[in-house]
Amino acid sequence: MTSSIQRLVLEKKAIMLIQAVFLLCGVASCLCLPSLTDRITDQVVARVDTLAIEGSLTFDNENILETFKAFIVKRGRQYANDEEIKERFEYFKQDGHKKHERYGTSEFSDRSPEEILCKTGFKWSERTYERIVADREKVEKMLMEVEKDGPVPDAWDWRKKNVTGPAGDQAACGSCWAFSIAGMLEGQYAIKTGKLVEFSKSQLVECAKQCSGCGGCDGLEQPIEYTHQAGLESEKDYPYRNGNGEKFKCAYDKSKVKLFTGKDFLYFNGSETMKKILYKYGPLSVGLNSHLIHFYNGTPIRKNDETCSPYDLGHAVLLVGYGKQDDIPYWLARNSWGPIGPDEGFFKIERGNNACGIEQIAGYATIDVV
Predict the structure, then answer these.
(1) Euclidean distance between CA atoms 260 and 6, whole angstroms
(2) Fewer Cβ atoms within 10 Å of its own Cβ: the N or the C terminal residue of the chain?
(3) What does the pLDDT look like over 71-100, one tens digit per residue?
(4) Active site residues
């Protein structure tokens, strides 16, 4: 009798232990067993090895094959078939083994130039620089106001003032300009009202005819011309829906507008000017060459004109702060590729020497709250 009871107790404990193990797996994302993603990734790596043995993947340096396999595991790549593996490997080679050795791989290392282009969308022209010259007198007056308050602090971060929200994701739409402008207006609204409200990017993409929607925008003043006339709704009322590059009819509702902008987008450039205006007036819309953002690893992106020309500006981001890390002065910026990377969609880039052209074009606009 006693042995039967003991056996039942042991069986009960065994069942409880098994249940606990399954519960732990559920809570901890099945750490006990390889996930489906892990198994698929392992299968992709195995196919890469097979294709290499068969001669279907060509390469001069065996290290690049190993780097590609490590990239697949790190990024959880799940290519559909052998043809996609071969295609992605070709793009990976074009990205460059020397670049991988220096910067590491990035989320975009196996992407085509067209796919990468979809993650940008800012255009500039001589007219932009003409505006910088034309706005110089207004900017000088703003700087005089800043200097009345004494020196600006050595470091600043608008996130800590609840003026800037998390990074959004433009996805496969060249709408960086809309994310940058909406973010700048988000900051102006928060400073003026004390409320952090996310503003609509799709309204700008679909309704601002001065720009080309997912095809980009020629200058940062163009969307401000639109919001001066029409105003801007919140993201909640007009959510982002252009991530696949789709075109939708403008669904603007004037009754839901939360702000109008002033008539002009004020342009300026230069490290010290940008630093003072950012501190005094709020986050800034800026243009830059996005090439090295792909490889951001938590340390400030350094100036490298050969790899990241300061004159090839094709992307717009939101400048939200500045500081110093390991004796490197940096800008803090919010990108629009989702909350990825070590700083969840934000990145630091060297300040004071126009790294990647980030000190070439900056600006902001005033607002009127509805």
Answers:
(1) 77
(2) N
(3) 999 888 999 999 999 999 999 988 776 777
(4) 176, 315, 335
